[in-house]
Amino acid sequence: MPSRSDGWPDLLGRRPLTRDERAELRRALDAEPEPGSTDTASDPLFLAYLTIDGLDREGDPRKAMRLRGRILAAARSAAEQRRTTFHATETTVTVGIYGTDAAARITVLRTALAALVTKQGLAARDEPW
Q1: Contact residues for 17 (Cβ-Cβ < 8 A; gap 6+)
Q2: Side-chain half-sphere exposure of 2, counting CA atoms within 13 A
Q3: DSSP letters of 2-61?
Q4: CA–CA separation, 128 vs 44, rounded Å?
Q5: What is the pLDDT of residues 99-127, one digit of tens each?
Q6: In the chain, where are the structural domains located?
Q7: Report field, pTM of the whole predicted structure over 0.85
Q8: How many of the other CB atoms lie within 10 Å of CB of 64?
Q9: Where is the stretch described as Disordered (predicted)?
Q10: CATH dotted code for 47-125
């Protein structure tokens, strides 16, 4: 088994960064914009919501948790790696999707959840909270 210069085994095959590599990494990090800064965004940031009401009708906590899980899984699938928000209370789940095509993604989510909403007797609306 290979060992590192400090005597510990090198299980991952990594080596410490050299001084030049650390300096290059610092320069690259300093050149990046601050997280959350909007001056570098080329597209405006849009956000669309879908709120599902009526989750308190399910009396069994296991079934309620599975129902919330199915809603979250459908939201992640519809978002396709876009930034999302997820807010849940006892009675509602609100999913927000960011991006220039957020409204289209919410439509995909609404279509994916249509059968579930109908079967469970839930209500879906586009307003948050």
Answers
A1: 25
A2: 8
A3: -B-TTSSB-SS---PPPHHHHHHHHHHHHHSPPTT--TT-SS---EEEEEEE-GGG---H
A4: 20
A5: 888 889 999 999 999 999 999 999 999 88
A6: 47-125
A7: no
A8: 15
A9: 23-42
A10: 3.30.70.600
